[in-house]
Every structure is written in structure tokens, then in C-alpha cells.
Amino acid sequence: MRLVPWWAVVSAVCAPLLLVGGWAVAGLLHGPGYDPVTETISLLARRGAPDRWVMGAALMALGVCDIVTALGLRPAFLLGRIVLAAGGVTSVLVSLSPVPHQGASHLHGMTVVVGFSLLALWPCLAAVRRRSPPWALRPGPAALATASMLLGAAWFMLELRHHGAAGAVERLVTAAQAAWPLVVVLSCLRHAATGSARARPAEADGRTSR
Question: What percent of the chain has pLDDT over 90?
Fold first, then answer.
């Protein structure tokens, strides 16, 4: 029996591809006036930006993928799945509340902060403490993932405040947050395959002993 349904595997694979592909295509369409090292992803989807729908659609699709993955990630602890789905909802809300052409948007900023926090916390909250869970759902790796993402989010806020490499740091953190559900899914698939491989020799030994 599969631990994760095929549609959740597809959504987990698509999430990082959509995010990275979205900012790559939107950056090309934006032209040389955009600096991906210092400027954030949100500026690619701001009101008045050329072809802003590309980044907006990518963020919305990313959120939908996170929601779908959360629904199918049955081996994970339920609270973690809920928080992952909530993080997906915030991605959709970010795409629906773009920053204005000039100035800042408190709604957009608050949604981004909430989304960063939820997507950083869900690995730890999804950890399973029963005997021998999939590797990525063990407390140690899950806690390390959460700590790394929280530190990355703090680093991003620091760079944003000091007008540093905020764009590069944001891409690093958001790519990690988009990729971790895929890491968990692949870990679950490997765990299931290993369990099946161990079960087959045991069944064969049982038949032989009879």
C-alpha cells in the first residue's frame, strides 16, 4: 500500500518547479531593470509590472500544490499537514494581494510574514514520534529543517531592512520551503519501498517453513 497517493507526489514535484520557473520567466519578461539579487519576488508581481500575472499565477499554483500535498501526506502528523495547507493558502493570498506600483502594502507584508512562519514551522509539527517513521518525518531532521528555515527567514528580514541581498536570500528560503514537501514525500516513498522489500523475504521464508 502506498503511503502517499500519486496526485500528492505530482503536486510535491510541481511546487518547486513552479516557483523557480515563475520567477525565472517573470524576471526575463521584466527586463534588465530588475535585479534578482537585491529585489524581491513580490516586485515581479506588483501592480503595474509587465506580465505580473506570470509570478502571480506561479505563487497561486504553488499554494494549491502545497494544499494538495498536505491532503495526501498521510504518514505526517495531522497538525503539520494542517499548517502546510495553511501555508499554501497564504501563498494564494499573496498572489491576490500584490504590492502597489509605489510604496508598500501592509496586507501583503503581513501575509508574507505569516506564510514564511507557517511554512517554516510545518516540518517540525509534522514529525512523527512513533517507531521508525520515514526519515524526513523523524523529529531530528524535521527540527533541523524548521530551524534552518526560521534562520533563513530572519536573514531575509535583515537583508530587506538593510537593503542588501534580499532577493537572493528570499529565493534561497522560498526554494527550500517549496522543496521540503517533496523531500518528505520521497522519504515516505522510500520508506514504503524498503518495507515492502523486507516483507517479501519474510513471506517467502514463511512459505518455505511450511
Answer: 68
